[in-house]
Write a structure and sequence with these properties.
The complex is a heterodimer of chains A (156) and B (499).
Chain A: H1 5-25, H2 42-60, H3 76-96, H4 98-112, H5 118-123, H6 126-139, H7 147-151
Chain B: H1 2-12, H2 15-33, H3 39-50, H4 55-80, H5 89-100, H6 104-139, H7 142-160, H8 165-179, E1 182-183, E2 190-191, H9 205-223, H10 228-237, H11 247-269, H12 274-289, H13 292-297, H14 303-319, H15 321-327, H16 333-344, H17 353-356, H18 358-386, H19 394-413, H20 416-434, H21 440-462, H22 469-472, H23 474-498
Antiparallel strand pairs in B: 1-2
Helix pairs in contact in B: 1-18, 2-3, 2-4, 2-18, 3-4, 3-16, 4-5, 4-6, 4-14, 4-16, 4-18, 5-6, 5-14, 6-11, 6-14, 6-15, 6-18, 7-8, 7-12, 7-21, 7-23, 8-21, 9-19, 9-20, 11-12, 11-14, 12-14, 19-20
The chains are: A mainly alpha (156), B mainly alpha (499).
Chain lengths: 156, 499
Amino acid sequence: MRISPTKFISLLFLVLSVFYLYTAYNIQVFAFDENAPFNARTFPIYLGWAGIVLSSLKIILPEKVTTEVNHKHLDYKSIIYLIIISLIYAAVILKIGYFISTSLFLFASYYFLGERRWGLMFILSFPFVAAFMYLLHGLLNIYLRDPFLKYIGVMG
Amino acid sequence: MIEGILIGLSTALSLTNILMVMVGCFAGTIIGMLPGLGPMTAIALMIPITYGFDPSTGLILMAGVYYGAVFGGSTSSILLNAPGIPGTVATAFDGYPMAQQGKAGKALAIAAYSSFAGGTISAIFLLVAAPSLSKVSLAFRSPDYFALMILGLTAISAFSSKGQFLKAMMMVVLGLMLATVGQDSLSDITRFTFNNMNLTDGISFVLIVMATFAMSEALTIIFRGKDPNRAAKQISLTELGSIKVNKEETIKMAKTIPRSSILGFLIGVLPGAGATIASFLAYGMERNYVNEEEKQKFGKGSVHGLSAPETANNAACSGSFVPLLTLGIPGSGTTAVMLGALLGFGIQPGPRLYQTNPEIFWSVIMSMYIGMVVLLILNLPLIPYIARILAVPRNYLIPLILFFSVTGIYLMSFNNFDIFLMIGIAVVATFLRLYDFPMPPLILAFVLGGLMEETLRRSLLISDGSPNFLWDRPITLIILLITITIVGWQIFSTFRKKN
C-alpha cells in the first residue's frame, strides 16, 4: 500500500499530537489548582485533542486535491550544503564572534550556490558585514556581542 | 473639538515636529523593511532617543516610526515574501505573486496608495469617534475576545488553504501548540520545555516568522532551483515594472479602500485584535465581496487582495490608538511599547488625558495626517529604488536573507540555541510548504495563542467551568455563528467539488 506524502505528514502530526497530549496531561500544576475549572494543563489538553481529531480526519478522508512534487526537480545537494553551512555558522558564532563567522558564512554560501566572482564575493561578505555592524553598533547603538572584536580592541 | 484640533495643529506643525514625523517615517520604513525588525523593534529603538524630547514630540516621532515600519514591512512582504510583522502577512498573499509577475513597482505603489488612504480615513474616524468608540471596545468581554480569535483563525484557514481546509486547521493547531511552550502566564509553571532553560521564556515571534517565512522562503527557492517553472518565476523577479496604476486598478482600489478602512479601524480599536486580524479579515471580506472572476485572481496577484489588507492594517494602526489614548489600554504590542514610553514621560494615558494633556492627545492625532502625507511623498518616489532589491541575483539574495534572519535572532538573545531552533523549524516549514501546508494560519495562531488561552481562562473561571459562556452573550454568539458558517461553507464547498 502506498501512502501519499500528505497523509504521511498527517500521520507524523498525529504522533506529535499524541505525544503533546501525553505531555500536557503530565504538566505539574499546584495542588490547589488541580481541580480548578482552568489550569496550566487545560488549554494544551484541548489542543492535543484538536490535533488528534484533525490529523485523523486528514488520514481517514479520501484526498480530492493531491499535491504532486517531482523530486527530480528538487535541488537536494544545494539545500543540504546550505543547511550544513548554517548549522556550522550557528555553532561557531559565539566562539569566533559575529563578524568573522557571518563574513565566512556569507562567503561560503555564495561559493556553494555557484558564485565565482571572488572580488564581489569578498565585498559582499567582509566589508558588507563590517558596514552593517557599524550601522547597528556605531549609529543605532544596538549592542552586538562580538568577543573577538572586543579582544582585539576594535569594539568597546 | 475645534479648539482641540487647533491645539493639535499648532503643536504638530511646528518645525521640530514636522522634522520628527519625516525622520520617524523614513527610519521606520528602513527598519520595517528588514525581515524580522517590525514596528515594535523600531519603536523600542526610538525610546532612548525620545527621552530628550518633550512628550508630544517623542510620541509624534514614535507614531511616524510606527506607520513607516508598517509600510516597510509591506515592502519586504511584497518583494521577498518575508513579512517582518504579522500585520503584513496577508499583504504577501497577492503582493508577492504580483512581484513575481514582474509588477513589483505596481504592487508597491498600490500598497503605498492603500496605506495612505487607509491611514488617512481612519485618522478622520479617530478624530471624530475616539471617545464613543472606546465604549464599544469596553463592551467586549473575555468570551467575545475568545470567539473573535476563533473567528480570525477559522477565517485565515478558510482563505489561505486553497481548498485544503483541514491542512490549514492543522497548521493553526501547530501554531497554538508552539505558543504554549514556556512559562504559563498566570501560574509561571513551565510547559513543554523538557528542562531546557532556553525555552523557559517561550519561542519568540521573530524566530517563528523568520523560520517559516524568510528562511523557509530562501530554502524553497534553492530547493526548487531545478524546477523549470520556478526558474522562470525567478527570472521575472528581476523585472521591476512600472509604478503607474491604471484606471481599472484605481477603480478597484477605490471600491476596496472605504470598506477595508472601516473594518480595519473597528478591529484596531479592539484591544489585542490589531493590524493582524484586521488585515486577514479585510482580505477575507474582500474575497467575498468581489465577483467570481476576481475571486479566482486572489492569491495570484489580485489588486483587491493586495489593497484590502494594506488599507486595513494602516487603518488598524490608527484604531489601536483609541484604547491607548482614551482608556490607557494598548490595542496592540506596538502600542504597548508606546504606553511604556508615555509612562516614562510621566504621563498616564486614560480618559483624563483630554483634560490634563490636550496638546499630546490632539497633536498625535493631527500628526497622523502629516505622517500619512510624508509617507506617500517619501515612499512613492523611492519605490523604484526600493524595488531594486529584487535585482540582486539569487546567489547573493539567498545568503543575505539567511544573514538577516540569523542576525535578527542573534540580536535578540545572543545564544546559538535559538539559531539552531530557527534552522530546524525552517527545514520543517520548507517541507510543509512543498506539500501545500499553509504557513499564515500557523503564524496567526502563534501570535494569538497566549491571548486566546488568557481569554479562555477568564471565561471558564467566570462561568465556573461551564461552556455556557459561548452562548450567554449575544456578541459571543453572533461571532461564533459566523465562525460556524465559515466552517459549514468549507464543508459544503468540499462536498460540492466532490460531486
